[in-house]
Amino acid sequence: MLRPEQMSKVSVTGSKGVMSEVIEAVHDLRLLHVTEYDGSWQEEFGFETGAPIEGAESASDKLVTIRSLKSILGVDENDAGRQRIVPDDALGEPLEEIREKVNELDDRRSELENKQNAIGDEIEAMEPFVDLGIDLELLSGYDSLQVVVGQGKLEPVERAIVDAPTIDTYEIFSGERTHAIFGRPTEDASETALVDALVGSDFATFEIPDAEGSPKDHVRDLEQQKREIESKLDTVESELHDLKVEEGEFLLAAEERLAIDVQKTEAPLSFATTENAFVAEGWIPTGQYNEFASELKSIVGERVDVEELERAEFSHDGHDHATEDVSETGGTAAATDGGVVTMANDEPPTVQNNSGAVKPFELLVQAVNRPNYFELDPTVILFLTFPAFFGFMIGDFGYGLLYTAIGYFLYTNFDSNALKSMGGVTIAAGVSTTLFGILYGEIFGLHLITEYFWVGVVDLTHAPIEKGLSPATAEWALGWLTVSVILGIIHLNIGYIFDFVDLADLHGVKEAVLEAGSWILMLNGLWVWIFSPALGDIPPEFLFTTFSSEGVIPLGFTGFPEIIGWAGLGAFFVGLALLAMAEPAELIEFISVLSNVLSYTRLAAVLLAKAGMAFAVNLLFFGAYEHHGEFHFLLNYGPQYALEHYEGAVILFPGLMHSGAAGLVGGLVVLVLGHALVLALGVTSAGLQAVRLEYVEFFGKFFEGGGREYEPFGYERQFTTED
């Protein structure tokens, strides 16, 4: 679980006469992550990159055609039906007939859409002339007059014409926003004298259409043409939809069949080949090597040689690849033990080895990066800590049930692996929130579980743990700060231990001690010193009282003895010295063992913030009073009853539910929307803060990532079958 599946590098060698059969067999097995041949054998052994098998270009062209048809028709996975066989003859004339029909309809649609857009533009351009209200033939065709139509402020326009020496006389006709200016230019004026006169007057001119009659009538005619085009367009769209219904299933199946054909025919591009032989290499999970080799042998027989070249280790020897000697004998490449050549010194792909409830959390890891093959996979740690952090911060039975329901919906109603994984993560966070809600005794911020279960059934005086909002329980709020610090120390230690193990495996124990052991000593040494009397009164008192016998979590711990504290400080400086020996540049970050841990106090901060928001919502609706330092909601009685029956009670807020019918209705809106807001902010605050602690504080201690995804050669059929 902490390591990915072990991978083996294998070679498949044979004559070109069986290459197609080998490709078919390997494709059906879907186990081999093919390594691309890099040309390194060309000079010494004469191996070149293989050429596509005959038919590759035709299959690729048809695949492009089908994808174009799918795009035109809008075909998607929802149009799939039963799995079907797609014979070769179906990809000939029948496909060509579909292509011709679709292209003809698509051309007609494009032509109609262009006409529709052109008419729309013409109608839009005609709007100013409709506003003007002058017949169109009156706006052009004059020998001695120039006409300009446009929009702008009339006074500066008229001033510009009056001041223009090239205009003798003029007349202006106006609609609501549009003006038509008729001007008689002087004899020596240019053909654009009127337009030139308006330059600088902030007057936007329009091109006068070459048409006759009333602008309204012209627009009416255009709108009729547009409706006729829309009708024709609807007919074309209907025909295209009918084609989609009729041929969508076939196109999906044909696309899959051709995608498989292209995969198979282009596979040799990854092989090393000679005139008569080929060598293919790749990675498979070690546990499936025997299955791969035996299945391939049973299909192709002794005409192919399958060899396990390397079992990639998770140690500092893991990069020492096994070697092979490739020679050409009788036109056949052979791999022999103890040789000196491999196709490529590539790292194995990473197959994260998680299952069950842990697997969805791979999504959170891959959001940063896929783990590389030689480092520990932190998915299981996220599975344990992320829901715990989230549940700790929200801690409410009602919210927890809703989060769980949302997660279940995502997990069961979507085929997307990402959404299903997000659903799994949300379910885990919701279950954790529900469990913490029981321990806190809260449901939607109300202490009903405390009253009816912990007090009424278990016979406790309060819930096992409390959030610490009221004055009487304020020590819990300080206690949660201490707990957050302890959680941070534990979480960071796990990160540094992961780093230690990775470094020890890849580079040896010495480097692990210097680079990771130094941080472990610094982290724990500093905090042992802080949790001791060695610092006097500097550390806050609640660090020592939270776990004392009288504290909120009575474990009998009041701090380490002073001598242990000084020993911790000594361990801190030893770690600092080791870090200086390993990476002197990192010395400037020594204070991070303090700041990183303090960053975890955001757990307690969000806990109190979310509890405070839920309290405020309930306070507005139900109302509440304070009695002996404790807050109580007015669930079963009003403010007056509380004042009469609880001596010294102070009303915090009387509650909208106790203020008449209008207040009750308004209060219900506040109650529902308020809790919905708290529910949503639980994701954006508690969720993001928990993720931040995982990514920034935890991952930053050991995680590099950069692993390659395992992509075995083959195709997972959805729409086709060979049976």
Identify the notable features of this structure and list them briefly.
723 residues; alpha+beta; Alpha-Beta Plaits; six-stranded antiparallel β-sheet; four-stranded antiparallel β-sheet; 15 strands; 12% strand; transmembrane helix; transmembrane
**Could you tell me the radius of gyration in angstroms?**
39 Å
The CATH architecture term of the domain at 5-49 and 270-342 is 2-Layer Sandwich
Query: Could you name the ranges where pLDDT drops below 50 across 5 or more consecutive residues?
Result: 318-340
What is the mean pLDDT?
A: 91
Residues in helices, as a percent range: 40-55%
User: Major sheet: size, sense and barrel closure?
Assistant: 6 strands, antiparallel
CATH topology of the domain at 5-49 and 270-342: Alpha-Beta Plaits
Question: What is the 3D shape?
Answer: extended
Beta strand %: 5-15%
Description:
This protein has 21 helices and 15 strands. The chain is of the alpha+beta class and 723 residues long. Among the domains are: 5-49 and 270-342, Alpha-Beta Plaits; 486-602, no CATH class. Strands 1, 2, 3, 8, 9 and 10 form a six-stranded antiparallel β-sheet that branches. The protein has a four-stranded antiparallel β-sheet with strand order 5-6-4-7. Strand 8 (272-273) and strand 9 (277-285) form a beta hairpin. Residues 313-336 are annotated as: Disordered. The chain crosses the membrane at residues 380-411, 423-449, 477-501, 513-532, 563-582, 603-625, 661-683. It holds the Pfam family V_ATPase_I. Belongs to the V-ATPase 116 kDa subunit family.
